[in-house]
């Protein structure tokens, strides 16, 4: 088995809801409530789920933009929360991010040279000619003309902007890139270009990706392993082929069934009934029981939280209705 | 590939494009406001050699002389004289220095401090922000004129004391507005990415936040110059502004007030100077804001 680059164990983030220093504060919002997974070297691990399920919060905690309420994040076997000084710098060099909206992630007041050059200046102290050359190389790596280094972000299309964001993430030769919905903000026609660029870069540079997406077609195209989140919890985790071939959890099944097929004879995907449960006051027992198609009036689903079990080898899920094949 | 348009710009012509675009920026400078500001700056810097008379020379025999286009007017006093027979034209020229330099000093000192405080307050958030904002509210709640009166009586009437007492009020206004802008800019993704990269906080403030709130600062500064010229004249009127006999436009307006029906020129010309200065600064500020914005620069 490949080395585990990033390991997340029992990660949770509760936001204090409402209220201020005068009132005692409302109920806490349990955006992420006990999530565990790992990312291996050179692989793409995909985190999928509906909006509001907490997948972006997981990314923010890994990027140290939010502090976890509970749980640990380890990078190369070391606890990330203990990093200080040089260790922290090294972590910030090795872990980079590409966000969804390329209009918000590039400073409109900076030239491309300064945008892509920022990590190089901060970490390697590059200046002048050396910086210009390195930025030129990076622009070529992502399929842009080096002349564009003197342009400003508004002179590019959305796809080109996302290429700039990718070049910036590559600048320090990182090991892990967190891709938070990297193509959701782009036109459908250029999504494939960006995805293929990401796949090529991964192959050439041995990168690991943590891909956060709600688009199951993209996940199937790019990922090696898949984790499904629902209202702050992981409900299923499997290799890509296993996930798409032998889905276990009813929520994953429903997600897959809701993807429209590009075939006029197949009826539109079925939707999941009901609404996503609220993380402020999540349902008791299994959090999916309010919408579950195979839920029967058993007190089990309603009252007991299902265990996180390995059903097949490397295929975990949390559902009372799924019986283990290997013990 | 989607970047064919980029490839049409060959490296050699990129230089040409840059030269051409900087020329076109120079061509679009607003002509009249820039000319007015240049004239006022020349007056402020070289007034003592341009003015035909001393601004403080009293000539009681020649008081209330009308401007040259009136029947009794003479070319000796182009814009007439005031109640003490001082030449209005000379006083306007010399007054430019007081009014403009006072405003610039207050903008530089108060505005600079205010921008720094606003950036820190907005970016830090939490307790730092709460404490700083309460401080700013205390300053904004104080009546400017009254505080200035007490202060000037305490430390003495001088050009410097007017600057010192007006700067905190200006700093509070700048800090409040810059803080609001900072709050919105710091939520943008490029700030989050800078944190992920490990960019030091001072660099995030200077390179990411400040350039994105600069428009607001420019507009506010040009508006505040007008406000300051008026404020200075109020203080002069109450006897705590720039000490006479130094000529200041606001003071001249105040002086002529009681003779408005009989000798309008004492009030009108300094008033027009204030109007011209404030209007030109605002128009120039608009141009500067558009020019500094890379999105509009290439239009």
Care to give the gist of this entry?
The complex is a heterodimer of chains A (327) and B (299). Chain A has helices at residues 55-62, 85-94, 112-124, 128-141, 158-170, 188-205, 216-222, 240-245, 250-257, 299-303, and strands spanning 4-15, 29-40, 44-48, 70-75, 78-79, 95-98, 176-180, 208-213, 225-230, 233-239, 309-312, 315-317.
List the helices and strands and how they pair.
The complex is a heterodimer of chains A (327) and B (299).
Chain A: E1 4-15, E2 29-40, E3 44-48, H1 55-62, E4 70-75, E5 78-79, H2 85-94, E6 95-98, H3 112-124, H4 128-141, H5 158-170, E7 176-180, H6 188-205, E8 208-213, H7 216-222, E9 225-230, E10 233-239, H8 240-245, H9 250-257, H10 299-303, E11 309-312, E12 315-317
Parallel strand pairs in A: 3-8, 3-9, 6-7, 7-8
Antiparallel strand pairs in A: 1-2, 1-4, 4-5, 9-10, 10-12, 11-12
Chain B: H1 4-7, H2 11-27, H3 31-50, H4 88-124, H5 126-141, H6 144-155, H7 159-185, H8 189-197, H9 201-237, H10 249-256, H11 265-292, H12 294-297
Helix pairs in contact in B: 3-4, 3-11, 4-5, 4-7, 4-9, 5-7, 6-7, 7-9, 8-9, 9-10, 9-11, 10-11
What does this structure look like?
The complex is a heterodimer of chains A (327) and B (299). Chain A starts with a strand and ends in a 10-residue tail after the last strand. Chain A has an eight-stranded mixed beta sheet with strand order 6-7-8-3-9-10-12-11, sandwiched between helices. Chain A has a four-stranded antiparallel beta sheet with strand order 2-1-4-5, covered by helices on one side. In chain A, helix 3 (112-124) packs parallel to helix 5 (158-170), helix 4 packs across helix 5 and helix 5 (158-170) runs parallel beside helix 6 (188-205). Chain A is built from ten helices and twelve strands. Helix content of chain A is 31%, strand content 22%. Chain A is of the alpha/beta class. Chain B is mainly α and 299 residues long. Chain B has helices at residues 4-7, 11-27, 31-50, 88-124, 126-141, 144-155, 159-185, 189-197, 201-237, 249-256, 265-292, 294-297. In chain B, helix 3 crosses helix 11 and helix 10 packs antiparallel against helix 11 (265-292). Chain B starts with a helix and ends with a helix. The interface between A and B is large, with 42 and 31 residues.
